[in-house]
């Protein structure tokens, strides 16, 4: 389970502030995963498992670029090279101050957050992380005569009371409830751990929330 995640809290959207977020949340996750894959053993029911903790902020609805939304939606044909180019394009546009023209998230405020625009780079990094899981799944499936079965999943734990958001948590409403509750770290860990232990059939390469496949 790879839960690498940082955000440029309270900082301006500059290349110097944004690059560490992409390096950690996407490039770091990818590089660690690739380094560990040769060590995986196919000695558990359902095969080995990789779980990348992403976020619903990484859903494609947060992108304004129709071209990227169209290409990233074609999940069966996503490649690692394309996801790399996506992430690097964002970094280039941030360096040039052209995020709006590039169709990247530009938020004057983020609902339920005191951090505002600091969530923009985080969202792009999580789009890349979810897309990478798709691309990795495609690569593993396409390998002829592969000896190992490796399942890869991305998932969102929910907005949880943890250090990354200053231990603020967020109030969410359960269906039919009249009062809000704060999601705990234990509740947030449920879906990632479930994916690691159970490896649901047909779920590899997909994005999960609350133990269910959800929209990328």
UniProtKB/TrEMBL annotation:
A Pfam cross-reference name: adh_short
Sorted UniProt keywords: NADP, Oxidoreductase
Transferase as UniProt keyword: no
Gene3D superfamilies: NAD(P)-binding Rossmann-like Domain
Domain of life according to the entry: Eukaryota
InterPro entries: NAD(P)-bd_dom_sf (IPR036291), Sc_DH/Rdtase_CS (IPR020904), SDR_fam (IPR002347)
Transit peptide recorded as keyword: no
Entry similarity comment: Belongs to the short-chain dehydrogenases/reductases (SDR) family.
Protein name: Carbonyl reductase
Organism of derivation: Sphagnum troendelagicum
Organism phylogeny: Eukaryota, Viridiplantae, Streptophyta, Embryophyta, Bryophyta
């Amino acid at each position: 389970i790879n839960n690498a995640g940082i955000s440029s809290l309270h900082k301006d959207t500059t290349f110097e502030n944004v690059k560490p977020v992409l390096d950690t949340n996407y490039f770091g996750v990818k590089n660690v995963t690739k380094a560990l894959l040769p060590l995986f053993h196919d000695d558990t029911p359902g095969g080995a498992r990789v779980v990348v903790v992403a976020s619903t902020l990484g859903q494609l609805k947060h992108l304004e670029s129709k071209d990227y939304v169209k290409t990233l939606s074609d999940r069966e044909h996503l490649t690692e090279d394309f996801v790399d180019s996506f992430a690097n394009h964002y970094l280039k546009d941030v360096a040039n101050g052209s995020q709006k023209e590039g169709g990247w998230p530009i938020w004057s405020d983020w609902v339920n957050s005191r951090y505002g625009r600091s969530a923009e780079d985080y969202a792009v990094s999580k789009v890349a992380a979810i897309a990478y899981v798709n691309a990795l799944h495609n690569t593993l499936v396409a390998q002829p005569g592969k000896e190992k079965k490796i399942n890869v999943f991305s998932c969102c734990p929910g907005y949880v009371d943890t250090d990354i958001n200053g231990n603020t948590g967020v109030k969410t409403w359960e269906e039919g409830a009249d009062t809000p509750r704060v999601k705990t770290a234990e509740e947030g860990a449920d879906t990632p751990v479930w994916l690691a232990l159970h490896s649901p059939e047909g779920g590899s390469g997909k994005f999960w929330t609350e133990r269910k496949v959800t929209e990328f």
